[in-house]
Protein: CTP-dependent diacylglycerol kinase 1
Amino acid sequence: MTSVAPITSNLQFRHKLVKDEKTFYNIKSKKFESDVSEDSSEEEQVIEYVDEGGVFIQESPKGEKSFMKKHEIPRKAFHSFTGFFTLWLYVNGYNQRQLVQPMSLMAITCFMQDFIRFRVPSVNNKLIKLYSSMMRESEQNSYNGILFFLIGIIITSSLLPKDICLMCNLLLSWGDTSASLIGREFGKYTPKLSANKSLAGSMASFATGVSCCYLMYGHMIPKYHYLVDLPNDIMWSPQTSTLNIHCFAIACGLISSISEFIDLWGMDDNFTIPVLSGSFLYTLVHAFKIQT
Structure:
């Protein structure tokens, strides 16, 4: 293999493609997501296998990313859509347990797809191109966030009451999205709470959590409860809790912010947010439940 010494200038570029007589490598900056700003993300150089062929070098300037890719618009749109889909499932009478089997099949499919692409570079290259608008650079050689999203929702759907599960989905879908978008845009104007979390992002997550609580327990459940819910489906109600809806909404906002903020050993937040928020919500509602 020819020397890759010329790549020392990589600090100025997001990508540099280096190809020798047999192997095509992609030498780039690996970015970690930050809700503070796009430019504040940590970076490290990585070398990843791309393809086979002759000698070729191509440089892509750091500012080359499109607005859609830079701000992850397709990814955030999909994230937000899952929240509306959750509401559609609720008003049409679906129970969260009914979703466990199809989501498990989807999770197995995603796992097998990633398992294969990690071992077959040509497949990996094609899938990276296919999902380029949705896939982060850090996911090109690691398991996709969709897999962790599915695993997190499978766990909450299997273990938690219907209303808590609904709230977990909304906090993941809308709370995490708002924290990321607001944090990236306005995080530079507010104090940083950690290396990649800002006060602006946490405030957005808090406001979204409060809004989701009022939406679910102040509108959706009262309107559709007698049409779509079975006995014991709904864990929190004004009649069964010493927490009024306003205190509960504030608690939901705090839980949304805390779940989004906590970093569990670098685990994907698509997994940690629903699991943590579900655990916190269940514990809170159970603690203030009126004993009969």
